[in-house]
Write a structure and sequence with these properties.
Elements lengths: L1 E6 L2 H31 L2 E5 L4 E4 L3 H21 L7 E6 L4 E3 L2 E3 L1 H12 L5 E4 H6 L7 E7 L8 E6 L16
Parallel strand pairs: 4-7
Antiparallel strand pairs: 1-3, 1-4, 2-3, 5-6, 7-9, 8-9
């Protein structure tokens, strides 16, 4: 499974906070993502400037990692609302091509396009990711079919509900 994160509105964030302030927010993003990767068995492939690309051998662990990231970011924003860090995440399952220490191919491109469409604070996954998580107590809602750049056919996508407890259905309190 390939996972992409992207800081939503990173250019506007830099304009608002300045270079030093934006770098502080980027470092916080990087710390949150890298910590979640460590605890969930993910492997950082590369830094993309305002995000991270990672891979997982377990689809469910990748989704759980994305939830952990969003929850940690929400906690950070609750403590520091002036920084207003918002992250988009996209995941796709497939068999990427390995070249050196990097990954390429359709699964990588699909994860990146889903990340682009996720929206601030969102996690968007491909249908195979959702299907491979059956029985894992993860909450998905159909997002619909997306016409993604570079893909000939529409791609069915699902939103991951990260702000609820799937066992109790209780909503998490999120900052405004």
């Amino acid at each position: 499974t390939v996972l992409f994160t992207d800081i939503h509105g990173s250019t506007a964030l830099t304009q608002r906070l300045g270079d030093i302030g934006a770098m502080r927010v980027l470092r916080r993003h990087d710390d949150v993502v890298r910590n979640a990767l460590r605890t969930s068995g993910g492997l950082e492939i590369k830094h993309t400037g305002d995000g991270i690309m990672a891979s997982f051998s377990s689809v469910a662990r990748a989704v759980e990692c994305s939830i952990e990231i969003q929850r940690a970011i929400a906690d950070h924003v609750a403590e520091r609302p002036d920084e207003a860090l918002r992250v988009k995440i996209g995941l796709a399952a497939g068999e990427p091509v390995t070249e050196g220490d990097d990954l390429f191919g359709a699964a990588v491109q699909l994860a990146a396009r889903l990340c682009d469409h996720a929206g601030a604070d969102g996690i968007l996954v491909s249908a195979p990711v959702r299907d491979l998580c059956i029985g894992k107590n993860l909450g998905f809602v159909e997002h619909g079919e997306l016409n993604l750049r570079g893909f000939d056919e529409p791609v069915r996508a699902y939103t991951v509900h990260w702000n609820t407890d799937p066992l109790r259905g209780a909503p998490r309190l999120l900052p405004n």
